[in-house]
Every structure is written in C-alpha cells, then in structure tokens.
Amino acid sequence: MKHFITGLIAAAVLATGAQAQQKIVVGHALSPTSHYGVGAQAFIDTLTELSGGTFTGEQAPAGQLGGERDMIEGLQIGSLDLVVTSTGPLGNFVPEVFALDLPFLFRDYDHARKTLDGEIGQELLAKIGENNLVGLAWSENGFRHVTNSQRPVRTPADLEGLKLRTMENKVHMTAFSGMGAAPTPMAFPELFTALQQGVVDGQENPVTVITASKFWEVQKHVSLTGHVYSPAVVLASPVLFDGLTDEQKGWFMEAAKASAAATRAEVNRLEEAGVALLRENGMEVITDIDKAPFAALAEASYSVYTDQYGTEMVDRIKAVQ
Ligand code: EAX
Hints:
Blueprint: H1 2-16, E1 22-27, H2 35-50, E2 55-60, H3 68-77, E3 82-86, H4 109-117, H5 119-129, E4 134-148, H6 156-159, E5 163-166, H7 170-179, E6 182-185, H8 191-196, E7 202-205, H9 207-212, E8 221-236, H10 238-241, H11 246-280, E9 284-286, H12 292-298, H13 302-309, H14 312-319
Parallel strand pairs: 1-2, 1-3, 5-6, 5-7, 8-9
Antiparallel strand pairs: 3-8, 4-7, 4-8
Bound molecules: (2R,3R)-2,3,4-trihydroxybutanoic acid.
Signal peptide: 1-20
Family: Belongs to the bacterial solute-binding protein 7 family.
Protein name: TRAP transporter substrate-binding protein
C-alpha cells in the first residue's frame, strides 16, 4: 500500500513536471575522465544550468550499472534515467541502427559526423524512439582498432585464429569471422579481466577507450585498422522523458547536444595525442595498414543489414559529402 501511494505521488509529480528537484543518473561504461565521462558531465552541467537547478545529476561510470546492453534494458523499463552508450548492442533493440555499424563504411570523422548530424541521423534517432527508448543526440566513440597480446597484426592473415572480443553486435562478429579472427562477444565490464587472464587474445576499440581503460597493461600490440566507426548516442528512458513538460524536454535535448560536443572534442584531442600515449605506455603501434584486404573480407557482414533493409541506406550514407 505504501509503495502504491508513493507511486501515485511520484506519478502526479511527474505529470505536472513540477517536482522541486530531481537528480538524473547518467550511466556509461568508461572512467569519469574518459570522453564519455566528459560528455556525461557536460550533460549534467548543462541540464542543471538550463533548468536553474530543478534537475541535477551524477555519473554512474565504469559500468557500475551494468554493460551497455543491460543499461539499454534499464532505460526501457525505467530503472535508469540516461545513458551514454556506443551503438554496439543497440542494433539488438533497434535493428535499423546496424547500418551505422557496417565496417569500412565511413571515410573519416567528418563523414561520420555529417551523416549523424544530418537527415540520416535524425531518421535513426526517430527509429530509436519507436522502440521504447528516447534518442536525444548522436555522440561519439571513434574509429576502432585491433589490439592483442600475441603478435603484430598487419594483414588479415595475422588475425587468423586470434580470439578477439567483440561487442554484442552481429555485424561486427560476422565482419571478424570474415577477416579470419575468432570473435567472442562480451560485455565491456568483463573485458579487462578477460584480457588479463587470457580468456581472449585481443579486442578492438578506439584510441579513446584503449587509453581510458589502460589496455596497455594487458595488450602489447595495436594496429590502426580503423575497421569501423563506432558512434555513441545519448539515450533517455521513455519512463522519465514522457513525463517531462515540453520545456523540460527541450533542456534535455540541449544538454545532450552539449554532451555530444564535449565528447567529440575529447575524441579529437585523443586522436591527436593517442598514438604517442599508447607508445609511451609500451604498446607497439602499427600505423601503416593496407585496409583494402581487410575491407574485402569484412564485406560479407553487410548482408546482416542489407538482407533485411536493402542497400538504400548504405548508398545514402556513402553519398554524404
Ligand atoms: O562504448 O564495448 C565496447 O567496446 C565499447 O566501445 C565501449 O564500452 C565504449
């Protein structure tokens, strides 16, 4: 009974949008100082400022609230407010988003950002909105590179038989099978220990994540394969969002844009400083990779998306200048 009454009061307060103060928890997988941490903090600071303190916030970093797949589920049921996540597991909830996870699709950061900031990005945020989630803004993780403990990877032959952790994403898994590795999907919070204990030989992530997670402690080799662009997205729970007034929704959208901008700035910084940082920390960095043979072998993964949706979106993304 008590819970019922508390629930009624909470619902009434949400319905009027007039609560005195509400603390928003922003979950993400990485450290508080990472590119996601910087973005989560920018969200909180902007929201607090725009709302004159009606909303405050705090980060729940480092996968404290679970892996990215768990956190997305938490948003759907309303146990979580807000998450900054890669699109890694998002295609399991919104399959149209797999289009963004296709390997060797985006030419460079400029291409990816223009696509996400334009019509295509808006359409995909709307698709997210049809699946019991609220897509507030596209943020960024970065171009992903292969690291491993065994040997320098220069050609697909060097990937042969490597046990490589991938995200829980069937496009990525199919791509790595094609390129010769043995993909092992795993939630990010389990990854460091799995690398340390040799459960997997390698993994793939952007410089941002390799540095934020100090993977140099457990990985010797990194190859700048840039095999796929990894978008991130600021997602809200519909349970929270649908209870907001239009003005409050506007604040959340603005805060998400500020979050994405702060994260992208940090990605830029780390892309500049990253390779030196990796070397300083003892990694052997292979920079001159011929991507064409990797791309040819990864192409089989396109059918994971195109079998269901055709090639129109792929062509549209390629055409973005
Ligand atoms: O979103 O799972 C991953 O490898 C992601 O790139 C990471 O958690 C940041």
